[in-house]
Amino acid sequence: MEEPSIRIKHFLQPEAELANADDIRALEKQGISLDDLPHILAGDVSITELSAPAGSVVKFMRRSPVTGREETYYRLVVE
Question: What is the CA radius of gyration of the chain?
């Protein structure tokens, strides 16, 4: 039996998407390798809708309550 998909819609939950090749190149240009990124579990409820396999990079976008600007951060998906 397949587990139900859970999607959290809450103002504190940041938007997430799989990082594309340009995002990863930009990280590498800044001297950041994939091994340097913080990890997130593949089964984390915040990314289950993405079906992100281990080894992929997830890009999170969140509006900063302090600056009002959109901040972007990345996580490496692990098992």
Answer: 13
